[in-house]
Amino acid sequence: MSAPLGLGLVLTASPASASAPEKPVTLTLDGAGIKEIRDKALKPPAWKKALAFAMAERGTPYVWGGASASGYDCSGLMLRAYESAGIELPRTAAEQYSAFDRKISWDDLKPGDMVFFSGLGHVGMISRPGYMVHAPHSGDVVKEERLSGWRRQAFAGAVRPDPKGVTAWAAQIKQRRAPAPAMLTASL
């Protein structure tokens, strides 16, 4: 008996009976099936989880001192976003900046980096090149916003809470873009 299992997998087995001994199960994978399994096994890094959290909170009102779904201030949003990814941060923007020794320059910003402005009085997270997600101020909501010239002038520095994740993600992207192994077949 043979049955397709998806991902290029075929399971072949014979029915068990009292008089016949069990036959081994054969599992065959082709190159495309192995690539698909390998790609699905890749785990997203912490910064990607933190960014997904922050982006999902868009539209939540700004609340001074807020750090919950009922409202966030800028550092409260970063605190909860990275907490959801397993990285603990201090509470305030200045403390968050000081918690990391390695600082990131404006020209080296990557998604997931925390960016600080106005003498460390405000923090956001790079969402994609040229944009950040943040909780701006009273009367506004969590939103994604383009990094303007004004933001560049007010830039105080940046940190990367998940440096290993940024490096690992670049390797994962390269692996995902690689073609499937040619004519590879494995039988188990």
UniProtKB/TrEMBL annotation:
Entries under SUPFAM superfamilies matching the protein: Cysteine proteinases
GO terms for biological process, alphabetical: proteolysis
Similarity comment text for this entry: Belongs to the peptidase C40 family.
InterPro entries: NLP_P60_dom, Papain-like_cys_pep_sf, PG_Endopeptidase_C40
Signal peptide start and end residues: 1-18
Domain spans labelled NlpC/P60: 44-162
Protein name, per record: Cell wall-associated NlpC family hydrolase
Keywords: Hydrolase, Protease, Signal, Thiol protease
Annotated GO MF terms: cysteine-type peptidase activity
Entries under Pfam families matching the protein: NLPC_P60
